[in-house]
Specification:
4 strands; elongated
């Protein structure tokens, strides 16, 4: 009897760990503050500099326009009820390695995100001494969350 009780306790603990991991990947709230902290970590780890950020909250279920569906790239299928926080950022970096490092940091975040758009350019002209001006890229990312009822939040 004690072995069965221990096994059930172990299963309950494993289930709670799985739920906690899922809530890190797809939280029940937008958690914009945590997202900002994660972006700052990516900034520090890659040697980049986030110049500005703009946030927008929207439903991930919005249907794409006809022009978007005509593309050869398939649109990701997002479960109903999933919401997203979109962040548009301008990021300055000294080299393409910094750009790559920043994008890798984004891709390895615990939270589920999607890099929706990426453009980059060089600011200003190169100086007469041969130094290159910093590169700036604009990236549009979406971080997803799944709002659930308050009763489920209090259980976790």
């Amino acid at each position: 009897f004690q072995a069965i009780t221990q096994e059930q306790t172990q299963e309950a603990n494993n289930t709670q760990l799985k739920i906690s991991h899922l809530q890190e990947r797809l939280p029940a709230q937008p958690l914009v503050d945590q997202l900002i902290l994660d972006l700052e970590k990516a900034e520090l780890a890659s040697g980049s500099l986030i110049l500005n950020m703009a946030f927008a909250d929207s439903s991930a279920e919005e249907s794409p326009s006809d022009a978007e569906t005509a593309d050869d790239d398939p649109q990701p299928i997002i479960p109903s009820g999933v919401e997203k926080v979109t962040v548009a950022m301008s990021v300055q970096f000294a080299s393409y390695a910094d750009l790559e490092g920043f994008l890798q940091e984004l891709e390895t975040m615990n939270r589920i995100i999607e890099i929706e758009n990426l453009t980059f350019s060089r600011q200003g002209d190169s100086s007469a001494q041969g130094e290159q001006s910093p590169l700036v890229f604009t990236v549009l990312i979406s971080a997803f969350y799944y709002p659930i009822e308050d009763t489920l939040l209090s259980e976790s």
